[in-house]
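re: that chain from earlier
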Amino acid sequence: MKLYYIPAACSLSPHIVINELGLDVELVKVDYKTHQTEDGRDFRTLSPFGYVPLLELKDGTLLREGPAIVQYLADLKPDAKLAPANGTLERYRLQEWLSFLTSEIHKGFIPLLYARLSGAYGLETVKPKLEQRYAWLDEQLAGRDYLMGDYTVADAYLYALTQWGQAEWLVPTYQANIHFDGLVNLKAWYLRMRERPAVRKALDAEELK
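^ sequence. v structure.
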């Protein structure tokens, strides 16, 4: 299998999951400006909009969209319990979290990541809304180590998004200047995530110091 990724992008999420599961997956870096892969191909021939992540299966099948990819990966090694079993209520809870992160957090960051285009709207409307969503997440993490209590692929996705907030080492496209002062539970979760070997390995591989 191959994972096409852009350093610091949301593709960090399946990258972390791959490390957690110890899967043999080739990482293919994509240039976020030129959309060229490391071996000189036009990534848009695989992903028409140039979006990562993209997972290429052994038979050439292409799987797009991060939430689908991380669930597929988790199901390759169900004993690792990074996703509850299909058909259980807990699996639907996981999908509930992934949907929330996609629509409310991931989408909420986009105007801030491209603030040059969004202008005042991004600062006056989008940023407060995103901060409200993070305040709610902080409440959900009270008394929990991870979003669902136990660690799942949803935590990997949230980490990939949250590190966009104020990390100075990110490429300019992926900085949003969100501050998490006062969100004690979220901060503890973030530090807990950052210390996971799979997370540190992914950050090192993507040269995110």
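The mean pLDDT is 91.
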